[in-house]
Design a protein that fits this description.
There is one protein chain. The chain has two domains: about 120 residues, RNA polymerase sigma factor, region 2, helix turn helix motif (Rna Polymerase Sigma Factor, Chain: A, Orthogonal Bundle); about 60 residues, Winged helix-like DNA-binding domain superfamily/Winged helix DNA-binding domain (Arc Repressor Mutant, subunit A). It has nine helices and no strands. Helix 2 packs antiparallel against helix 3. It starts with a helix and ends with a helix.
Amino acid sequence: MINEEELIQQLKSNTHKEQAFKALVTLYKERLYWHIRNIVKLHDDADDALQNTFIKIYKNIHNFKGDSKLYSWMYRIATNESITLLNKKAKQHQITSEEIQQLAINNLTSDVYFEGDSIQLKLQNAIATLPEKQQMVFNMKYFQDLKYKEIAEILETSEGALKASYHIAVKKIESYLTNN
């Protein structure tokens, strides 16, 4: 198993870049897919955003400064790609990104890759009522079990603010689930 520093060096070198990138994709594609999927909801959209994420990582690895962990940097790119995809779809349909997300949730039952039940659909609806940042924090903490420190690096904010956001998000979700 190659360590992160060696992987970064290989990604930045001309001789090992292709091989290192394949290793990077193998290591992170599933985690990034589910991170993106929690934001965009639908499999096809998640695939598109994941592909765009890896293209950006490949093209911009030389800009990675090492101020954060590599996966924090990649998650940030994946998050931005997901939001960009939602905004682009919303603009195409001339509706808000919140409405596009609600449409995606409504279409989850017809997504062959969605294996959830009515409870999971209700949870997705509850999450969709949250402001964007609270959604991100909740998804990363609840579904991906990331530590606050990792989420803080990804979203470039303080751990204290994240803990507060997560706590508020949980209360809102509990309230939604109780009242709907």
